[in-house]
Amino acid sequence: MKHKLLPLSETMHYILLALREPRHGYAVMQEIEKMSHGDVILAAGTLYGAIENLNKHGWIEPVGSEGRRRIYQITEEGSAVLKAEQERLLHIISLYEGSEANEKI
Amino acid sequence: MKHKLLPLSETMHYILLALREPRHGYAVMQEIEKMSHGDVILAAGTLYGAIENLNKHGWIEPVGSEGRRRIYQITEEGSAVLKAEQERLLHIISLYEGSEANEKI
DNA sequence: GTGTTTATTAAGTTCAACTATATAGTCAGA
DNA sequence: TCTGACTATATAGTTGAACTTAATAAACAC
């Protein structure tokens, strides 16, 4: 599953995590702020650009709309990417000696 | 500790991890290939550019040389960055429901 | 002595993420 | 009701990390 936008950037990663539930762009922005305890606040341009990009790659897809709002959700391919990303991160964390995650991968 | 090259890219992250031991550029390249089980193979341009950048930011420093080889090692500031990065990754992993790392952060 | 590995440098390209701005609807309070 | 804040999306232009490619050169094996 080699792909040009792997490894996932923090932006892409959080958007995919947020879209495990169907959400429109603005709601994704708010969910990410919440998930990250306010550490990650995406600018509008970054958010909508990334959504367009993820949609183009088939990792998320539109699943309806409410007025101006366009609702997206992660696809099966997107979920597979998330799973691979989780394993990549667990591997990197295992390289920190003394880490609580050691010996897990 | 807000910084322009945070969050750490995979490249920067592996280089810092490799330089917890003193190493020259080429040895860093090999260590990263080994650490990542061959998944991450840095091109020469990427590696030396990143080393220059990390040195400029004070996260690694030259600690001697052997002929053409210039040996670098992580600084205290670099170690602090690694620690922060570890925590960031553990937090993101905790967002995966059912993950073994859940409830750790 | 020819080819491979070691070791570093530099030029030029790509694209995600950024800033900044434009647009427009909704909604609360003065 | 009008003024500002919030909701919601879009787009133009900039920056810089990571990439490809290639040049240079020493050391070593065959």
TrEMBL record, chains A, B:
InterPro entries: Metal_resp_DNA-bind_regulator, Tscrpt_reg_PadR_N, WH-like_DNA-bd_sf, WH_DNA-bd_sf
Domain Transcription regulator PadR N-terminal, residue spans: 18-83
Residues spanning the signal sequence: none
Name of the molecule in the record: PadR family transcriptional regulator
Source organism of the structure: Jeotgalibacillus salarius
